[in-house]
Design goal:
36% of the residues lie in helices and 22% in strands. The protein is an alpha/beta fold and 265 residues long. The protein has one domain: UDP-N-acetylmuramoyl-L-alanine:D-glutamate ligase. Strands 3-2-1-4-5-6 form a six-stranded mixed beta sheet. The protein has a three-stranded antiparallel beta sheet with strand order 7-8-9, sandwiched between helices. α2 runs parallel beside α3. It is globular, with a radius of gyration of 17 Å.
Length: 265
């Protein structure tokens, strides 16, 4: 049977993040990708210049169209900037019984542009995070969700991950890409399990869409039947290799994307 994953996220006009990064990742990992667009963005490697939100009712219509026809094995959720859209997505997941959900709480773009309305953060925490199999915040996102300082070391990362578990997801992957040091360390935290995932930190400015790529790679693994810890490990290896190869391609004048198809061209 064909493995199918769905991305619910915003569109990136420059193709490096969001829906476009997710579909590239699904394809690179041998998974058929479907999509529900939550917002259109005018952006490039230098930043976001405009956002046009998709009405919540149309987001619901897209979800119903996909789930009524496709046998979706996993769902990745990215940019959801408005309260009504978050509530519509939560209702759609419940309506269609989707429980393999990877939630990437996209709040700030690589360029520093805010992508989540301030009044939507509490709705995200109340309505969507409890429906996630795994939530994948980076260090600034974890701090923003907890209204806390950014974690300075792995001990604080683990403490924040455990606090995020209290919001209701079955697991938290707190990402250390924004930290310093020779290693880039992510921590997968579950109620009764803990995994440290480390890789050599890659020196490149081409990191646009890295978080989108990681979360969609996890969803791809889940869609193929991997257990969560296996899917996370495989996704970490894929993203690391894509970052190592990122400078082989030249995309834009700012933060370019990792090389999603590094194994192919």
């Amino acid at each position: 049977m064909t493995a199918i994953a769905l991305t619910i996220a915003g569109s990136d006009s420059a193709g490096g993040a969001g829906i476009q990064a997710d579909l590239k990742t699904f394809s690179a990992l041998g998974v058929y990708g479907a999509s529900v667009v939550t917002a259109l963005t005018a952006q490039n490697t230098n930043g976001v210049s405009a956002i046009h939100d998709v009405p919540a009712a149309f987001v619901s219509a897209q979800m119903d169209a996909v789930f009524s026809d496709l046998d979706v094995g996993a769902v990745k959720i990215g940019m959801v900037s408005q309260r009504a859209v978050i509530e519509a997505i939560a209702a759609g997941l419940a309506r269609w019984g989707q429980d393999k959900v990877v939630l990437d709480p996209v709040m700030i773009a690589t360029s520093g542009d805010k992508l989540l309305a301030a009044d939507a953060v509490e709705v995200l925490k109340r309505a969507l995070i409890p429906r996630a199999l795994v939530v994948t915040p980076n260090l600034p996102e974890a701090a923003a969700l907890l209204n806390a300082p950014v974690a300075r070391n792995e001990t604080e990362m683990r403490q924040q991950g455990e606090r995020l578990l209290e919001l209701g997801p079955r697991a938290v992957l707190i990402k250390g890409g924004h930290a310093s040091g020779a290693e880039s360390v992510d921590l997968l935290i579950e109620p009764h399990a803990f995994v440290r995932l480390a890789a050599d930190r890659v020196a490149t400015q081409n990191t646009h869409g890295t978080g989108c790529t990681l979360s969609s790679a996890i969803a791809a693994g889940l869609a193929k039947g991997l257990a969560l810890n296996e899917a996370v490990g495989a996704a970490k290896r894929y993203v690391t290799a894509a970052l190592v190869a990122a400078d082989r391609i030249k995309i834009g004048a700012g933060h370019g994307p990792p090389h999603h198809f590094h194994a192919w061209w």
